[in-house]
């Protein structure tokens, strides 16, 4: 901290990211409430614990290798260069190694580990998206493996490729995804779909003639509160995708040029602008969801989230009316696709996660390519946003790094008999084992007391 302004910048940035982590924690609280509200009573405890235990599982694995993947793979590797082993201009690679003393909690690190924590909460979100889609039939051990895969490996690879300021997708494709329509949502939605193809539907979801039954939320109030908590946590999500108080003078002709916020690519934006765009995209999604679903509360609330996700790719640059229109346009697409895929391929997505996150995310990437055609993709490279690059990016996010790994890992687990719970347990309820364990503990205590 050589100067007063330098000290204030570091102090503010450290606190800024710390606050985003606190806000984003509400996303995970919301996911827990949302999933429990959707699941049937006999699966409540299992649903809650599955989403709770992904916290330590993903946190530990993200600490040991997930964070390093982000800093080590922006070149592909092999597409524009090799594995990045040396420290970059931020000293990031040194701080991404868990065995390096620099990474330990000490007076020398003011920013990197709160930044690490912000990315970690993105990892929780990616795993939670998959969690909702597969409730009521997956083994907890299988989900833990899948959570590690999406939370600490595959979304981090796509972040390194398309969300790192020097990622190859930015340099080669002109990819732009400021608030993670693809980087988190499309990849997690695609991964979830790959798992669902192998996992199969819940018992009772489909009839003998192929028609589907609606297994609606068991606690609509909990679903409502859960989604509102996710909306609230998304404020932290958006803020964490920015870099505050960035001196871009050297990048913009020399001198000093401080920006109150830049996007993840270090291109200027403002918190004022993204606040307006966030609210307009939420409103566009809610309005369209209410109309398309004919007032169904579950899909109305979910459509608000889908609207935000669809506009997120370009919400650092859109006009507020563009954000609203894009959000509203995404809702009928994701809503119709959800039911078409369900009926055509017998896919049982319990909470509509693939539609809300995956289909809306892909829609947002493609539209961004057209709406922002010709705008700079990054402050550092002479490459512009374009439809072809964004479409290729959407395929990479949803398909290559999403659907394909999810399907392959699920196939391996299924072949080993470790993916799905036995039919008799599913019919009785996944909580039965927990209740039997609790009953055994109670009997043991009673015996001791006697």
Rg calculated over all Cα atoms: 22 Å
CATH classification class: Mainly Alpha
Cα separation of the termini: 66 Å
Number of self-contained structural domains: 1
What would you call the shape?
globular
Per CATH, the architecture is Orthogonal Bundle
Share of helix among residues? 55-70%
Quaternary state of the chains: single chain
The strand line-up of the biggest sheet is 1-2-3
Overall number of strands: 3
Q: Give the helix/strand class.
A: mainly alpha
Low-confidence stretches: 444-449
Helix-strand sequence: HHHHHHHHEEEHHHHHHH
Mean of all residue-level pLDDT scores: 90
What do these coordinates show?
- This protein has about 450 residues and is mainly α.
- The protein is about 65% helix and about 5% strand.
- It has a 3-stranded antiparallel beta sheet.
- A hairpin with a 5-residue loop joins strand 2 and strand 3.
- The N and C termini lie far apart (about 65 Å).
SSE blueprint and pairings:
Layout: H1 4-38, H2 44-72, H3 92-95, H4 112-133, H5 140-162, H6 168-173, H7 181-199, H8 220-240, E1 243-247, E2 258-262, E3 268-269, H9 271-292, H10 297-312, H11 320-345, H12 353-371, H13 387-415, H14 423-428, H15 432-449
Antiparallel strand pairs: 1-2, 2-3
